[in-house]
Structures are given as C-alpha cells and as structure tokens.
C-alpha cells in the first residue's frame, strides 16, 4: 500500500479499503452504542462537503468547529478537508470571549456548533464577527433563528447531483503543502497563536507514528481527549482511520471509567492525568483494605517492579521471579486490567510528562504506557516509545522521518516534514520559532541518551532560577510528589525567590482518613488544611517522597489548596497544562505570606 501524502488521500484510501465494514465509529445515544459504517461515513462527508458549496463556501475559506468529540466532529473535519477549506478547531470549554478572538483572527466564514450551549456563545459574539456568515448546528434543538441544521446542509449537498466524481477529484487534487488546519495554541503564556499545519505535516506524522505504534484493523479505541487538540486528532482520529481501528466516542470525561467497561477498548490515548488518577485509586483501595490485602498489594508491586527491570533490560527473568510474577499478576494486576476493560494492548500518553514510577506500575500490570512527546507546531509527534522499543522515563526515540538536535543550552530542536508552515499572520513569531536552517526551537529542555532515546527535563520557560542562582526543573519534582497517596496535584514555584515552595492539592479521602485516625478534628475541609498537625504531616510526606532530591530542590514551604486546578478557573489550559503565571497571580497573596513567614523562621 502506497503511503498517503495528504489527509484526503488517507481518507479515500481508508474508504476504499474498508468500504464493506459495518463499523468505523460508535457513539452512545441513551443506553445504546450506535455504529456508523464506512459507507455511511463517506456518504455523510460527501453530502456535507457539497452542502458547504451550496452556501457559497469556497476553496481556501476557513471553517471553525466548536464541539465535543462525536461523529459529527469527524464528519465536519473530513468534509472541510475534501472541500479544500482549512478548519479551525475550537475547544468546547472556551468562553465566548476567547472563541471570539480565534474566529476573528482566523477570519472564519462558517462555524459548526454541537449544541444549544455552544450556539449561545456564538450568538453572544456574532455581531463582532463580520466575516462569519454561517452557523451550522449539529443538534436539532440548536438550529433555527440564524443557525442552519447540520442535516439541512447535508440535504442541500445530497440534492447536488452528478458531482460525486468531480468532488472526489477536487479533494484528491490537494497538495502536501496545502493548509489543512489552523490550530490555536492554548496560550500558557501570551495570546494564542494560529499554528498552520499542512496536509503533508499531519500525514507525515501519521505515517511516521504508525511505524512506531502497532495499530491494527481489529483495534478499538475510546476517544475522550478533545479532538480540538492535535494529539487526539492525529493519533485518535487520522491514525485510527488509516489503520482501520474502530473509534468509540466517550460521552464525557466523567464517563470514561464506566465506558471502558462497556466498550472494552484495546488502545487508549490519554493525558498523564488519567494514569495518575487510576494509580491513586488503586493505591487508595489497597491502603483502605485489610492488613492482608495491603501486604499482598505491596508484595505484588515489588515483584512487578523487579520483573519490569529484567524484562525491559532484556535479561532473562529468573524462574523464581517468573513464578511469583504470575501469582502477582493473577491475584492483583488482573483486577486493574479488568477495571480498564480487560482488552488493553497498550496506552499512549502525551501532552505532559508522565511519572516513570507510574509507568513502571502500569507495565508491571500488563498495561504498557507508551509515552511520547511533541507540540502543536510539530503535528504533534516528535518522539514516542514503541511496544518493541520502550524505555521508561523517556519519551522514546524520534520518529524515523523526524530530526532532533540538542542546542548548547539544552533546548530540543527538531526539523522535518512534521514542522508547521508557520504562525498565521505572525511572520515575526514564525521567524523566532523556526531558524534559517529549518530547526524549530521547541522551548523544552532535554537530552538524547546513548541509545537515542529522548528525555525531557522541563519547559525552558518553566525553569526556576532561585535568587541564589540555582536552576530547578519543576515538572519532574511535581510528578514525583504526585506519587504520594496524600497528593492529588502539585505545582512548584519560586523563580527569582530565595527558595522554592510547592502548592499542593491534597487527596481529600486519604488526608481526612488520616486526620480521623489521629483525632485531628475540623468542621470544614478548608479548616482542616489550616491545622498545624496537617501542615506538619504533609511536609513530612513531601520530604519523604522527594528524599532523593538535592536540598535546594526541596520546597521549603507548602501551600495546601482545598480545590484542584481547573480549566474553568483559568489555572489549566484546555489540554490540562498548568498556567503557572495564572496560578501564581491567583494565589499571590497567600504565596507572599508564605515567604514572609519563612523569612521570620
């Protein structure tokens, strides 16, 4: 099979290969998972794409998509690509004011909205968007009053007769250098920038990624990371289509655990937060059980970790360890495998660093997590571990069609067909990101080891430089802290200060249980966190977990927060990255008080 050069070649090749297969994707309506066939998908894409033409949409026009993950998202995406109209994915969690910026900056002439709630955002800002001519609503109750029904646009396309072959020919005339999509960075610093990704950018990444990730036509995935993000779109959308895997759209993030048990996926792509939460829940259950259950769990964990060392070190597993591992797998790890559906071949992790300890635990449980690394600007994958080439604590080797170099200051540079065309209408920002030799400066610090595996140290802009000149990479320390049963989330701060501090979101269940055992009482959760006994307990725990760190890397003070960081509060980007500046500004008063207290002591 000839490798596709464009996303349209990928789509039509998949349609031709799998045309008789009854399921390409499923979505849950009520209590039932409703399938869509390849033939049905092709028909819906064709009708919607032709329908856009009846609205006066022309090749090169930008069309936005404001929706949660669902089949209509995929249909709209493929329809835009076939019409040669770059689409602009918009995170459904964004408020109207931020949506307005993206639509105005991109000059979108039309937008797909999923629901009445998303349509209301557009109604609020439409008068400020003179270029926006059409709003197309996926849900029937969101149409009317200036919004066209999704099915109505498809009906208009269905009425266009005798154009099927011409439509396909036009779609396949797309060139690798043609703009496919305009994806706005979530803006951890500064205003969002529109990343211009071409057909060739993303398709090269699909081809390179599938050489590393062994997806099969028999695989099924559960899609819950936002399709607005290039990680899910490339790996959970285009890669699945190219490999013939079935895509199941989760109802929401809250239903993922239950729907894993319904769908029994073989492959799951996620942000590290999912693995952290699963690990924390397993640890919590073990610690909350009987003494025998607790002892069995930690015995199995130790045996599993020993087995992983031999296995990944490509050394023969001793007979005594192999026997004990089989027992541990049957008595302990099998329960975790069942909890995630019972059929997982591998997980993929991206978007942020994953703790090597958590990755080791999952591997011991027979659930390998293939950690990767990339940026929106790189379509996105630069490097990823494979099932045959896996090294915990790294993000794998660069893809075969990707170049990676390390600058003298440790910054990771990359070059190749995956690197964006540039930032939309921002030539200066483009020139700053991509040098004259074609190297994209990632802003991340890392190293390549002797075997060619890439290890990420931290974000260049996140490096904490203390007043004493000590450099501290916060992310690995935060990940280490989050392996504690008492820690739900952690953010380290302290740039240009005398020492670092850490903001901790405690695991409420674990901390309240400890307080009850110790007779520490409080009428409210917030009050409990202020108790000196609790403060002292958390400080001892963090010092224990970070015991192997250099003295200057240890937080001198902790700020315990009653609620986790969230997208709604502005602390997190839609891809769950911490906005450190926002967090530091939001808690500035408490942080200053903490430093003042430390100065006195």
How would you describe this protein?
The structure is a single chain. The protein has 601 residues and is α/β, with parallel strands linked by helices. Helix content is 42%, strand content 19%. It is built from 21 helices and 26 strands. Strands 4-3-5-6-7 form a five-stranded parallel sheet, with helices on both faces. Strands 12-13-14-15-16 form a five-stranded mixed sheet, with helices on both faces. Helix 2 crosses helix 6, helix 8 packs across helix 9 and helix 12 packs across helix 13. It is globular. The mean pLDDT is 94.
Q: How many DSSP helices?
A: 21
Query: How would you state the average pLDDT, rounded?
Result: 94
Helix content: 40-55%
Largest sheet: 5 strands, parallel
Give the overall silhouette.
globular
Radius of gyration: 25 Å
In short:
The protein has 601 residues and is an alpha/beta fold. Helices cover 42% and strands 19% of the residues.
Mind sketching the topology for me?
Elements: H1 7-17, E1 25-29, E2 32-36, H2 38-54, E3 63-66, H3 71-82, E4 87-90, H4 96-106, E5 110-113, H5 116-125, E6 134-137, E7 148-149, H6 150-158, H7 164-172, E8 179-184, E9 194-198, H8 199-212, E10 220-223, H9 230-243, E11 246-249, H10 256-263, E12 267-270, H11 272-288, H12 291-312, H13 319-339, E13 346-349, H14 356-364, E14 369-374, E15 381-384, E16 397-398, E17 403-406, E18 411-415, E19 422-423, H15 427-433, E20 440-448, E21 454-459, E22 464-465, E23 471-472, H16 474-481, E24 487-493, E25 501-506, H17 508-518, H18 525-530, H19 532-545, E26 557-560, H20 580-586, H21 588-600
Parallel strand pairs: 1-11, 3-4, 3-5, 5-6, 6-7, 10-11, 12-13, 13-14, 25-26
Antiparallel strand pairs: 1-2, 8-9, 9-19, 14-15, 15-16, 17-18, 18-20, 20-21, 22-23, 24-25
Helix pairs in contact: 1-9, 2-3, 2-6, 4-5, 8-9, 12-13, 12-14
